[in-house]
Amino acid sequence: MITYQAWREAKRVHRENLLKTLDRRIEAAKSRGDTALVQQLEAERNYYLNN
């Protein structure tokens, strides 16, 4: 069974990885000029930052 501390650490690392991936995707979308995708990805990033 996983401890509460291990679960919280896994959750933190997972969130960090999600945010890093979103940042890379946002930069790629910006470089392509895909403003609709940038807006969508930024909204998703804000969701993870605020929850």
State the helix count.
2
What percent of residues adopt helix (DSSP H or I)?
A: over 70%
Give the H and E element order.
HH
Instruction: Note the beta-strand portion.
Output: under 5%
What average pLDDT do the residues reach?
Answer: 97
- Quaternary state of this entry equals single chain
The biggest beta sheet reads: none
Can you count the beta strands? 0
**Residue runs with pLDDT of under 50 for 5 or more positions:** none
Alpha-carbon Rg, integer: 14 Å
The number of domains: 1
List the helices and strands and how they pair.
Blueprint: H1 4-32, H2 35-50
Textual characterization of the structure:
This protein has 51 residues and is an all-alpha fold. The protein has one domain. It contains 2 helices and no strands. The protein has helices at residues 4-32, 35-50. Helix 1 packs antiparallel against helix 2. The longest helix has 29 residues, at 4-32. The chain starts with a helix and ends with a helix. The model has no long low-confidence stretch (mean pLDDT 97).
Please summarize what this structure is.
The protein has 51 residues and is mainly alpha-helical. Helices cover 88% and strands 0% of the residues. The chain has helices at 4-32, 35-50.
